[in-house]
Amino acid sequence: MGRGSESESNSDGWGRARGLVLKTLVLIGGAILLRRLTKSTTRWDHTRVVARSLTGDKYSREQASRDPDNYFNLRWLSCPAAEMVDGSKVLYYEQAFRRTPHKPFRQRFFMVKPCPKEMKCDVELSTYDIRDAEEYKNYCDRPKDQRPQPEEVIGDIAEHLTTIYLKRCERGKRCLYEGSTPPDGFPNSWNGAAYCTSELSVLKNNEIHTWDRGYDDDGNQAWGVRGGPYEFKPAPASSFVDMFTLNFPLQSMDKRIEGSFVLQE
Question: What is the pTM of this model?
Answer without folding.
Answer: 0.75
